[in-house]
Amino acid sequence: MFEYRGLKISWLGHDSFRIKNAKTIYTDPYEIKAGEEADIILITHEHFDHCSPGAVKRISSPKTTIVTTPVVKSQLSGVKAKEMRVAKPGERILIDDVIIETVAAYNVNKFRSPGEPFHPKQDELLGFIVTMNGVRIYHAGDSDSIAEMGNINVDIACLPVSGTYVMTAEEAVEAAKLIKPKIAIPMHYGSIVGDVRDAEKFKRLASCEVHVLSKD
């Protein structure tokens, strides 16, 4: 767990985080056995390691707002929640005193077959910028280093580092140069592809402060 200006940030493995202050926010719940009830759940896209209906059910309740894509909404039809907000990149959503901005997440050089990226831009998959307690946190989702990152202004950036489906550690370093966060936190390793060596390589090469979190 890492604390920054009153926000407690816990890495739950892969792309999943719990961000806690007055509200409890989860990103991409995946291998979560149980946990504190969520006020807000942010799900970047429909792949099984980001949208796990079982994990979402364990932390959702009638007070929970879920922000995600139309495809994910259809996969979560059995989940109890106060509200399911469907979004595309470029939106701004206010949930009580928490601001959620949706941003693009896509591949430019990671392909399942020639010309077919794992995460196509036209699918309008999501990254998120969360503003809570005056702190801005960016969760990049499953993305390569993309031009849109040059317009992101945040305190903390959570960036994938494992390669194959997302940025490599070296590409994440370039993304961090675009974003210029105060602090970067590596993610997307340890479950599907990549391991802590990717996170440590990113920390070694990055020009900003990097925190490699232990899994809660």
Explain this structure.
- This protein is of the alpha/beta class and 216 residues long.
- It has one domain (2-210): 4-Layer Sandwich (Metallo-beta-lactamase, Chain A).
- Helices cover 16% and strands 32% of the residues.
- It contains 4 helices and 16 strands.
- The chain has helices at 53-59, 70-75, 169-179, 196-205, and strands spanning 2-4, 7-13, 16-20, 24-27, 40-42, 65-68, 83-86, 92-95, 98-104, 111-113, 116-117, 126-132, 135-139, 156-160, 183-187, 209-210.
- The strands form 3 sheets. Strands 1-2-3-4-5-6-7 form a 7-stranded mixed β-sheet. Strands 8-9-12-13-14-15-16 form a 7-stranded mixed β-sheet. The chain has a two-stranded antiparallel sheet with strand order 10-11.
- α4 links the parallel β15 (183-187) and β16.
- α3 (169-179) packs across α4 (196-205).
- The radius of gyration is 16 Å and the shape is globular.
- The termini are close together.
- The mean pLDDT is 95.
Per DSSP, what share of the residues sits in E-state strands of 2 or more residues?
25-35%
CATH fold title: Metallo-beta-lactamase, Chain A
Structural class label: alpha/beta
The figure for the number of domains is 1
Instruction: Name the helicity range.
Output: 10-25%
Rg over alpha carbons: 16 Å
Uncertain segments are none
Inertia-based shape = globular
Largest sheet, if any?
7 strands, mixed
What's the helix and strand layout?
Blueprint: E1 2-4, E2 7-13, E3 16-20, E4 24-27, E5 40-42, H1 53-59, E6 65-68, H2 70-75, E7 83-86, E8 92-95, E9 98-104, E10 111-113, E11 116-117, E12 126-132, E13 135-139, E14 156-160, H3 169-179, E15 183-187, H4 196-205, E16 209-210
Parallel strand pairs: 4-5, 5-6, 6-7, 13-14, 14-15, 15-16
Antiparallel strand pairs: 1-2, 2-3, 3-4, 8-9, 9-12, 10-11, 12-13
Helix pairs in contact: 3-4
